Input
Amino acid sequence: MAGEGSEFRGRRIPEATVVRLPVYQRILSELAAADQRTVSSEQLAVLARVGAAKVRKDLSHLGSFGTRGTGYDTALLVAQIDRALGADGDWPIVIVGIGNLGRALANSEGFSSHGFRVTALFDADPAVVGTTVGGIAVRHIEELPAVVAAARPAVGVVATPAGVAQEVTDALVANAVPSILNFAPRVLTVPSNVVLRNVDLSIELQVMSFYQARSGTNSAEGPA
Amino acid sequence: MAGEGSEFRGRRIPEATVVRLPVYQRILSELAAADQRTVSSEQLAVLARVGAAKVRKDLSHLGSFGTRGTGYDTALLVAQIDRALGADGDWPIVIVGIGNLGRALANSEGFSSHGFRVTALFDADPAVVGTTVGGIAVRHIEELPAVVAAARPAVGVVATPAGVAQEVTDALVANAVPSILNFAPRVLTVPSNVVLRNVDLSIELQVMSFYQARSGTNSAEGPA
Output
């Protein structure tokens, strides 16, 4: 048996931990699918490529403390992480911008699981409007106010070209979408009561080049 | 004048800072394009949605200390971040899997700037092989060993369906690609000398639902 049965309830979880929880969740889901019923912090650490002590600390924020010698109950831990991430809720999503990226998002597993569901797609291109992506018909951007008023999405995803990203965001905000997830390579501004998060597809590439560039140097710890 | 002229050289920069540097870089690039020659840590903080003290701390790792009352020299700071991130290097990239996501990546600004350049694209679908994406002809996956041996890419990007992601990764590793950037929703294993970073397109969505789920609760700090 793993965990001490305490549920996640209004605990303060550091953002660095929040960002790692989906990573653990994916690993645990794969282990559960492979019928592995318990997992050690060490195994989880190797697969997630973080330290085992960090794994234990992260999971302790959920009230989950593995049993020495046995580890964590895989299925229980998946459920605890789902609960912590709000994945037992219902999170309707609209996606604006149905180019290659918007299509990839509309079809991605991550946007149709853990409580998320794509409810509407919008584009301005007449060649795209009316086509079906991931089982959903693409609507014209001019229909956004009416559709959003009816669907009341939790998240508006901006996957447009950079040049129109702010305009699209303004339309989402004006129609009371509370959270914006921005994939466009543009710095957006939103009112302070709107949640805005940005995804930079190249950010991990840049982090990677940072480490490679450093491994190519052999300079000592540098004073100014 | 901003900064004290010391260059980034083998300093230890915390990973949390490394991940924020591309964010600052994008903001600074937009400010520079708009002819704003100096920027305060407060303005940068608002646009990046982090605290001003954190901005100053992050930039101090680059040896950049803004001038009181004036702030940072925008263009100089862009150059310092580029240098820190290795963006003055040359980072050839190959992308495997030219579906919607692979196309989006091949066409994205982030994969063709700051020292990165896409040099080859691979797919297994006969309908895709031979087509041109972002000015580059898509090659058959069977050509990967020969092409990689000649191009010696710094990074192999995996944008395939989950089911073949490990197989494709093995092929990249077998052909001496030193770093793998994985977009497939699958936990990959690589030898310890290979750098592996994973991008989960839904991770920010999950972080967002975490905060929304929490704001919907009003429970106090929870004891176990």
